[in-house]
C-alpha cells in the first residue's frame, strides 16, 4: 500500500517487507543508519505524530541518547577508554585495576567489548546480531535477538545490570506478554536454572518454595538471588552443606587462551579433575570457611577481569561456568590469596532443612561379579564419574546411565546423596553402595 509506505518513509524508514496487518511487525531499513529492524505501523504513527521529533529508528534514538549520557563520564573513564582499546593493553592499566576499586568500577560500567556483550546477552537468552561500535563503552546501541520468540530489539549493554538482577529475559516482547515480573515470568526464570515452582508467586524479590527439577531437593529462594549467582540446588550445583569449608580455584586453559575462577566443596576433586581433563592447568587453590565467602572471593576476582571475557566453541559446550572465564591477555592478574586476605565476615548461606538429609540405606551385595549391572551418580574417591564407569566396564560389568529394575547396584558418593537416581533405586528396590565400598569389592 503506497500510502502506508509513505508513512514509514516519513519516519525515516524504507520498508523491505510487504504490509500485512496494522499490528504486525514490518521489517524496515533506516534511511539514516542503514540498520534493519521490524516496526509496527501503530508505533511508526505514534513516533511521527508525537511532536517531539523523536526518531522512529531505535538505533538512531538510543545513539542520540547515548551521546548525552556520555557527558556524565568521569575523567578516569575517559582516560581509560582509549588505553583499553590498545592491543596489547599497557601493563600499567592492569596494575591500576588491581589496586583501585574506583578504576574497576569505571571499567565495569564503561567498557563493553563484543566478547563481554555476547557473554552477558547469552545469560539473558539472546544472541547479538549487530554491535554498532568496535570498542563499545556500554552506551552504543546493539541489536539482539531473543531465542525464545525471535524478536529483535535495540539495547544498551551498559544499562543491562538491572535486567541481570531482575528478570530472566531482557526481551521487551516476552516481558510485555508476561507482564514483567508476573508469576509465569518468575516460574520460567526458575525453570531456566533447573528449579520447579508448584505455586509461583509474582515478584523477583519474593522468596519462593522451589524444588530442584533434577533431584527434588527443596529450596527457599528468590529469583533475584538466583540472578545474582546464588547456587540453585545445593545437591546438584554445590556442596550439601553450605556452611562447610569450600575452595576457590584458578585454572589456565592454554588451548583456549583463557583463565577460569570457580568454587568447589572440599568433599571431592571431581570438578577439578574435570577441568584437568579438558586441558586445564591448576594455578591456585585456596580454602575458605564457607560457600558464601567462596562466592565473595570469586566475585572479587571476576570484578578485576570482567571486561575481557572469552566466548565461542568448543569451550561454551564443554566447560561448566564458562562465563567465569577471561582472556589470558587481560592486563589485570588474579591472586586468590591476596583477595582472600580481605575476606569480610560474610554470613554463611542457610543450610537445607533436616528433611533433605534422609540417609540412603547402603545395604549392598557382598560381591561384584562380571556381568553385574551397575549405575553411578555423582562422583567420589578422587575420580570422575566417567573414570568409574570405564573402570567398571574394564572389570566386565555392565554400566547403565539410568536406574531400572534390571540394575543390580547404584553407586553413590555417600549416604546423604539425594538425586533422581537414588529415588529411582529406592522405588525399584535396587541396592545402593558408596564409591569406597564399590572400589573395595570390585578391586579397582
Automatic annotation (TrEMBL):
Signal peptide (from-to): none
Entry-linked InterPro entries: BRCT_dom, BRCT_dom_sf
Domain BRCT intervals: 371-434
Protein's recorded name: BRCT domain-containing protein
Organism of provenance: Oerskovia merdavium
Phylogenetic lineage: Bacteria, Bacillati, Actinomycetota, Actinomycetes, Micrococcales
Amino acid at each position: 500500500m503506497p500510502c502506508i509506505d509513505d508513512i514509514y518513509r516519513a519516519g525515516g524508514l524504507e520498508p523491505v517487507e510487504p504490509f500485512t496487518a496494522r499490528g504486525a511487525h514490518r521489517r524496515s531499513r533506516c534511511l539514516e543508519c542503514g540498520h534493519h529492524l521490524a516496526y509496527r505501523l501503530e508505533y511508526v504513527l505514534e513516533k511521527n505524530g508525537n511532536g517531539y521529533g523523536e526518531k522512529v529508528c531505535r538505533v538512531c534514538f538510543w545513539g542520540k541518547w547515548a551521546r548525552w549520557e556520555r557527558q556524565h563520564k568521569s575523567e578516569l573513564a575517559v582516560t581509560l577508554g582509549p588505553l583499553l582499546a590498545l592491543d596489547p593493553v599497557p601493563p600499567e592499566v592492569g596494575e591500576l585495576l588491581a589496586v583501585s576499586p574506583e578504576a574497576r568500577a569505571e571499567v565495569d560500567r564503561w567498557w563493553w567489548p563484543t566478547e563481554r556483550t555476547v557473554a552477558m546477552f547469552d545469560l539473558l537468552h539472546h544472541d547479538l546480531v549487530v554491535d554498532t561500535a568496535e570498542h563499545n563503552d556500554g552506551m552504543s546501541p546493539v541489536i539482539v535477538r531473543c531465542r525464545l520468540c525471535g524478536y529483535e530489539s535495540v539495547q544498551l549493554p551498559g544499562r543491562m545490570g538491572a535486567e541481570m538482577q531482575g528478570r530472566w529475559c531482557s526481551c521487551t516482547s516476552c516481558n510485555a506478554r508476561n507482564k514483567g515480573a508476573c508469576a509465569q515470568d518468575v516460574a520460567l526464570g526458575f525453570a531456566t536454572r533447573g528449579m520447579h515452582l508448584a505455586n509461583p508467586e509474582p515478584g523477583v524479590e519474593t522468596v519462593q518454595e522451589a524444588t530442584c527439577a533434577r533431584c527434588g531437593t527443596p529450596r527457599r529462594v528468590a529469583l533475584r538471588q538466583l540472578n545474582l549467582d546464588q547456587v540453585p540446588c545445593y545437591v546438584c550445583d554445590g556442596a550439601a552443606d553450605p556452611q562447610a569449608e569450600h575452595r576457590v580455584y584458578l585454572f589456565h586453559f592454554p588451548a583456549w587462551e583463557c583463565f577460569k575462577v570457580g568454587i568447589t566443596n572440599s568433599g571431592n576433586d571431581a570438578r577439578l579433575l574435570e577441568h584437568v581433563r579438558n586441558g586445564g592447568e591448576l594455578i591456585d587453590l585456596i580454602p575458605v570457611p564457607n560457600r558464601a565467602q567462596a562466592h565473595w572471593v570469586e566475585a572479587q576476582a571476576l570484578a578485576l577481569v570482567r571486561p575481557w571475557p572469552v566466548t565461542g566453541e568448543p569451550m561454551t559446550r564443554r566447560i561448566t561456568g564458562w562465563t567465569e572465564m577471561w582472556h589470558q591477555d587481560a592486563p589485570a592478574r588474579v591472586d586468590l590469596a591476596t583477595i582472600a586476605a580481605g575476606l569480610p565476615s560474610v554470613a554463611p548461606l542457610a543450610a537445607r532443612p533436616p528433611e533433605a538429609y534422609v540417609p540412603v540405606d547402603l545395604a549392598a551385595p557382598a560381591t561384584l561379579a562380571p556381568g553385574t549391572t551397575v549405575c553411578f551418580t555423582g562422583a567420589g574417591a578422587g575420580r570422575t564419574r566417567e573414570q568409574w564407569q570405564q573402570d567398571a566396564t574394564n572389570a566386565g560389568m555392565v554400566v547403565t546411565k539410568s536406574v531400572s529394575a534390571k540394575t543390580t547396584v547404584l553407586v553413590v558418593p555417600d549416604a546423604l546423596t539425594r538425586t533422581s537416581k537414588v529415588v529411582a533405586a529406592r522405588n525399584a528396590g535396587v541396592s545402593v553402595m558408596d564409591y569406597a565400598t564399590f572400589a573395595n569389592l570390585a578391586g579397582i
